[in-house]
Amino acid sequence: MKYLQLLLLLILQSHKVHMDSIERNQDCAWSCSEGLQCKPRAYSPLSAFHCRNQAVSSGVFNNVTLSNVLACEGRKCSLQLRIAASVNVTGDIRGVSVCADSAGMIGHCQIYTFGPVGKGKATGKQVDVQFKCVPVRPGQLVFVTLKTIPGYCKAIWTQRHLVPECSHEGIRDEITECITGKLAYTVNKARNMLTVKVTDAPENTDYNLRLCHKRNVICAGEGAQRTIKPQYLESSIALHYAKPLPCLCIEGWPARVDARRVQVCPFKNNFEELWSGITFDLNKEELIWEPLCPVKVSVSLCHADGGKSCQDLGNAFYSEGQKVMFSSVDPHPMLCTKFTTEVGEWIKCPFAKGNFSVWTAKITSKDGQQSAEISTWVKASFSISVCEMNPSSQCKQIEGNQFQTLSVDKMKPTVFNLPKSACEVCVCIKVQRVDVRFSVPVLQCDLQCSSWCHAPERSQDIEKVLFPALIILTGILAAVLFGRMTIKDGDKRRTPWTKLRCLRMNQ
Predict the structure, then answer these.
(1) Alpha carbon distance 419, 443 (integer Å)
(2) Whole-prediction pTM value?
(3) Minimal CA–CA distance to 82: which of 56, 95, 64?
(4) Most buried one in 85, 379, 404, 486, CB count within 10 A?
(5) Is the separation of the CB atoms in 377 and 411 below 8 Å?
(6) How far apart are CA 355 and CA 331, in angstroms?
């Protein structure tokens, strides 16, 4: 297949593809120069051909043109190849032959002999010949050969001609085999339903409709195919779908052999649906993402820090529709999957609900001793360190405190004692699994201290809340005091008539 594509590419590069405008209803009959009597007849391309090696003047064939035309009768059109040439008649040349061959098809061949011109002959003259048009099909590669009668080996003209594909605007709505119909649709998301209307379909022909998943060249069918009779084409057809995937398409085509098909994909920009296909094997500790549609994407695991960012863990895997698998993964709620495409980035956290968590860490206190307790449902190893939170919400390593590694057996909690000064500076413990390839660190800062914990960021947070509150409270008190003073001063200045009028108004 690759060799055929390469051959076609070389042919297109070495010969102009005829994609010019296509003439309509042009004369496709044969003709010769005015006054010259030409006699056409068909002959088999399988006939034996013998050519003469005698010298012949160069340039026997001139101004050879190959053009595509539409021969139409009413609304029915066919694609034809029109061939025209000027022939310099010398010596004993008394005619020409033309053949249009195509791979896998029997060629169309014709012979034209020249009669007398008035009382003379055609010898020494230039004869203009338009050959009878040859029927061709869209996308067909045709080999055209012109020869003299009798045949001279040095007077043969050949050229390749590529007929336009159905995508050419001049034929896509004119040739029966190119007409696919047009699809319009509406989406009902609540019912997972597409309502489809077919227009401009071929006349008197059944029409097929279906939903399919487009995977590169192939569109694999989903659900039953619907066949619509011509008299019902004006009615709307309901098609139900399972998921609004970007590769889910509506496909329609006339119900005939090798008919061209038209596709529209209503959810082509709905990438969000692709990232839900994440599965996790708890026994093998494998996270697998299998795309439901072909898509160019880089996939990586990352650590969600509670905000909008997610720090990458290791290198990304690139996929164009292939399955992506991460081995040796700790299923923690803050371990997420990042998908990056040309149009955007998405982060999905498959363990966010904590359904797969296999270990926990908590702070305990007994007789004033602060401790970290780790429990696990699988045998695992952990690194533990003590750190101090700073104003930028980062846990800074305490000087002199080193990481410690603990191996914890299944269902056997292990306790790690914190330093006595833990409540003085509000330390946190950082715990992370180290027996897997992908894991995230977990901070535990809920110390059970009897005295206030003067963490720098807590003091700053309190100041941020209290300072504005004090300003607002002071303003309220000032307004109340000023109001009372105004009322008292006003009472002193009122006359008996004013007081009486106020009393009546109040009544």
Answers:
(1) 17
(2) 0.65
(3) 64
(4) 85
(5) yes
(6) 9
